[in-house]
Amino acid sequence: MAWDRNDMARRAAKEMEDGFYVNLGIGIPTLVANYIDDDIDVTLQSENGMLGMGPFPFEDEVDPDLINAGKQTITELRRTSYFSSADSFGMIRGGHIDLSILGAMEVAENGDLANWMIPGKMVKGMGGAMDLVAGVKRVVVVMDHTSKSGAPKLLHECSLPLTGKGVVDMVITNLGVFEIAEGGGMKLTELADDVSVDDVKSSTEANFEVAV
């Protein structure tokens, strides 16, 4: 049985280490905040100017003035700080974020990432993804393995406009975990529950080594 959204978020949370500053993208990555190990101290950063985000609020805790970059309501911590979006991007561009966990529409076997637009469809803007993949020390993508039509999203080459070239270090899908070496080269390192290597191969265009 393939992983669901929460399973993928739980697996992505394992990539965090004590002392990390982490940016979580829109979609499945926002769920990662619910699965951070209690034994590690991680600080979540949001592009809209918040450092030290808490978990999603219960219904009686919702404050409409507290939102993340995806406009979802969140909670603050005793150590939370607020600043301008310009300062937030200065933090990102200056290389001060250890890990970014993002969604994607396509990832190529060499680590190219496409996650900001589909030509012909309305988009609100590129957001902060291009800055994140250029300035962050490590990039982990969390996404479904195929599109809603069943088309592979792990490809030889991305067909959509790129967010960044060779920027992805790891991809976590509902079928498993792939690591991408510096300079390219995709490797399957972990399978989701009850998923076989053949299941992965039948849903993947990209070339990859098997290390499970």
Short descriptors:
13 strands, single chain, 212 residues, 15% helix, Glutaconate Coenzyme A-transferase, 10-stranded mixed sheet, alpha/beta, 3-stranded mixed sheet
Number of helices: 4
How large, in whole angstroms, is the Cα Rg?
17 Å
Element-level helix/strand string: HEEEEHEEEHEEEEEHE
Query: Can you tell me the overall shape?
Result: globular
Q: What's the architecture in CATH terms?
A: 3-Layer(aba) Sandwich
SS-based structural class? Answer: alpha/beta
**How many β-strand runs?**
13
Q: Write out the strand line-up for the largest beta sheet, numbering strands in chain order.
A: 4-3-2-1-5-8-10-11-12-13
What is the CATH topology classification name?
Glutaconate Coenzyme A-transferase
Q: Helical percent range?
A: 10-25%
Largest sheet: 10 strands, mixed
Under CATH at level 1, the class stands as: Alpha Beta
Q: Give the mean pLDDT.
A: 91
Q: Assembly type of the shown chains?
A: single chain
CATH-wise, what's the superfamily?
Glutaconate Coenzyme A-transferase
**Uncertain spans:** none
How many individual domains? 1
Distance between the termini: 17 Å
